[in-house]
Specification:
One of its GO terms (molecular function) is nicotinate-nucleotide adenylyltransferase activity. InterPro entries: Cyt_trans-like, NadD/NMNAT, Rossmann-like_a/b/a_fold. It comes from Lentibacillus kimchii. The structure is a single chain. The chain is of the alpha/beta class. The chain has one domain (2-150): HUPs (Rossmann fold), CATH 3.40.50. The protein is built from eight helices and six strands, in the order E-H-E-H-E-H-H-E-H-H-E-E-H-H. It has helices at residues 16-28, 52-63, 74-78, 84-94, 106-111, 118-124, 155-163, 174-182; strands at residues 2-9, 33-38, 69-71, 98-105, 125-130, 143-146. It has a six-stranded parallel β-sheet. Strand 1, helix 1 and strand 2 (33-38) form a beta-alpha-beta unit. Helix 2 (52-63) packs antiparallel against helix 8 (174-182) and helix 4 (84-94) packs parallel to helix 6 (118-124).
């Protein structure tokens, strides 16, 4: 049976923090792969600044050189708001020989009681909660917890830096920085 980590998010844009989380969880949990799953329209956030195809293209660039990373486009192909329960139900049916590990930040752990069909979702996936500055991982749900290097990098900060014409070098992989410049994203 394969063990696959799912790292969902808007990835607007993907940054070094996302890659560190995926890499650390992949190795610590002995996963076969980590699938980056961009949302089309996240249920808990406003819509993304970059369009879906740009966000997928940036993810494809950052995952291309790591054979353990893959881009999973189930949610962007579905269009509209996606809920984790619906997505994971579909993925389980499509990949019955796979155990899924859903990777979330400590901020999302606090919101688990509000997730759609959380009790059924807990039977479908193993949650892996990673630390995040300003949050603690306290939950009455069975969650594997992990410490990962804390990075004070966020997609919002990166977009703000681009708008202010500040450098984003080393905050995002070079391939993402080039893509943002070539496509004039976040200006």
């Amino acid at each position: 049976m394969k063990s696959i980590g799912i790292l969902g998010g808007t990835f607007d844009p993907p940054h070094i923090g996302h890659l560190i989380i995926a890499n650390d969880v992949c190795h610590a949990q002995q996963l076969d792969e980590v699938w980056f799953m961009p949302s089309y329209e996240p249920p808990h956030k406003e819509s993304a600044a970059a369009d879906t195809m740009d966000r997928v293209a940036m993810l494809e660039r950052v995952t291309a050189d790591n054979p353990l990373f893959k881009v999973e486009t189930t949610e962007v192909n579905r269009l509209g708001k996606s809920f984790t329960f619906d997505t994971m139900k579909w993925l389980q049916e499509a990949h019955p020989d796979t155990s899924f590990y859903f990777i979330i930040g400590a901020d999302m752990v606090e919101n688990l009681p509000r997730w759609r069909h959380i009790e059924q979702l807990l039977e479908m996936v193993t949650f892996v909660g990673v630390n995040r500055k300003g949050y603690t991982i306290n939950s009455h749900y069975a969650i594997r917890t992990m410490d990962v290097p804390l990075m004070e990098i966020s997609s919002t900060a990166i977009k703000n830096r681009v708008r202010s014409e500040k450098t984003i070098k080393y905050m995002v992989p070079e391939s993402v920085e080039t893509y943002i410049k070539e496509n004039r994203l976040y200006e």
